[in-house]
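Entry for the shared binder. Reason: the reviewer on the internal report wants the predicted structure included alongside the sequence.
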Amino acid sequence: MAIWQNQSPHLSTLDMLAQFVGEENWNTFCQKMPTTELVSLPTDDVPHHPRPSFSKKWRIAFIVLPLLLVGLLILFIHKPSGDADDTQPASATTPSLPDDTPIVFADSVVKQLCVSHWDTNGDGELSMAEAAAVKDFGNVFRGNRDIIAFDEMKYFTGVTTVGSYAFDGCEGLKSVHIPDHILQIDQLAYNACTSLDTLHIGSGVSLIHHSAFTSIPPLACITVSEDNTFYDSRNGCNAVIETATNTLVVGGCKTTIPDDVPIIGEAAFSGCGGFAAIKIPDSVTTIEQDAFAWFYLLSAIEIPSGVTYIGKQAFSCCGALKTVASHMKHPCRLRDGAFAKINYKCVLLIPKGTRSAYLTAGWTEEVFQGGIVEMKN
């Protein structure tokens, strides 16, 4: 493309543009334009023609077009780069200051224990920052019979595991609310908390040891956070169910075993109280070791026809157990001690014509001293 430039003493339109936007901006503009070839002709060589008479329309265009060109040039030069459009300077992140607010404990015994172990500045209080710095409860609370509640666990955000025996033997503890930052509850963590009535499992818990909650007779209210993806308490069943396997892992005295549960987990009802009888739904195929051991008030149970496994000591030490009604036509082998130390008058009821099969599988009168009776139906 060639731009014809007249060498007359008068300024051309481009010269006026250069003066208007400044030399530096003009050079920038020219560098970004496609390469052009400037051809200069002497004035004498330019053919002269009579000046045409322009219509009003063309005179307006002659004035407006240079102005538009000037405007576009200014916008081009001063337009920010694409990066500047999309990227803003990152604001500095202000680190959170330590929270020195003292925790208000509902239980004075819990406060005393916490202050004596974790009050690092010696002011006689436990701040939220001091609580957050704790990594493990250790044996601080173990065996203390005076603790009633410890809902302030939610402030101990550095603790992700309720360790083994952490609250073992806390016989006065009435409620446990596992906060969302807890990921794991280890073996016997709440063993023999004989006053524990209410249990809530937070959203973060992904592992509960089978003996974490044992020997807790009054456990009447069990809930699981709806945001927990590992465990649930479906349909208000008052139990903890492992979601992936549909295994009941923690039961209580008011549990209704859901009819989609195939497994009663190890020690799920161990040491429980309150029941006079319990119905195991037809969906259950496996009753694991110690599942109902030491179920003090259990007086009668029904075992559905689909059960294929009953673990060791599954119903041991159920001293009030008087009737076991089994609907298995092909009984599973009875493991050692499955019904050890039950009531000596306990009667076993079995389907008609299956007596020989039960005796062969170890369901003998030595275990059921009240006798083995075939049901009519």
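Summary line for the report: Residues 1-10, 34-46, 79-97 have pLDDT under 50 and may be disordered.
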